Amino acid sequence: MASPMALASDTVTLRIMHFLPAVSNAQQNVIEPWCNDLENRSEGHIECQIYPSMQLGGNPAQLADMVRNGVIDIAWTALGYSAGRFPRSEALELPFMLPGGGVEGSDIAWDFYQQYAQEDFEDYKVLALQSDGGGSIHTADTAVHDMDDMEGLRLRASTRMAASLIDSLGGTPVSMPPAQIADTLAKGVIDGAMAVWEVVPPTKLDEVTHYHSQTAENQATPTVTTLAMLMNKRSYEGMPEDLRKILNELSGRALSVRFGESWDRAIDSVRSDISADPDHTVITLSDEEYVAMRDASRPIIEDWAASNAGGIDRQVLVEGLQQIVEQKAPNLQ
């Protein structure tokens, strides 16, 4: 960890922990290359020690606390793991708000953070804020073309907002860790999952599902998981000024979009492979059914916006996010 008295000639070692395996897209295609860039730009004065799969202990829900308390220097985590910790940022996970795709969603998320959500992160240095590209519906035996097909389906939900969305569409949300999805589905305990394409192979969803329902390119994605790279403030402030400058240049919007680009490559690759497999059917929602699902979920947004918990004007946040989306994705339905 960086010392407050660090000199420009010192080597700063950043301890980074996350909740996925070392072979994950996040580590192999973003975190490790980013660390290599830090080391190269700093001529070896910034080094990373990466701890995948919570190797230093704790569970994913504790990552935000662990980095805030200085147990680690940096955490890559899902904001939803820390329920209530980042209340303004919940707007990003409201149903049918963001476009599908990691780059576009991450760019919007960074704008929203800068304009409306900085108070959520007063205890941290925010290095990146990303969208996971948005969820699709993956089912074993039921092809989901419309809301009638959703009725009674037991679907794994990754976030609280996703659970509310599934409920609003007539399904039954079920919560469980990603590692349990395939086995639970194979046993018939659940019927499918709402998940981003990127996680389908790692969670073995492709081995137990046959139908995959997604929105079209010009339609907002049903749900998003927002992920963040958070740094301990003392660790950041303890870095020499020239090393902080390098860190800043390689982080922020640049790192957020870098995550998004990697997610988009993974999403495109997985969707292409599954579309070519005769055992799988990929369904794109019609405009009519998309509008029906979007309208059915509107009360979730309205109820969230009407809450003033914590003295936060959530209506302003919803309207602000909608304005950013209109500017960044003007053709979105």
From TrEMBL:
Keywords, ordered alphabetically: Signal
Database matches in InterPro entries: DctP_fam, TRAP_DctP_sf
GO process terms (BP): transmembrane transport
Alphabetized NCBIfam families for the sequence: TRAP_S1
Name of the protein this chain belongs to: TRAP-type C4-dicarboxylate transport system substrate-binding protein
Organism of origin: Halomonas organivorans
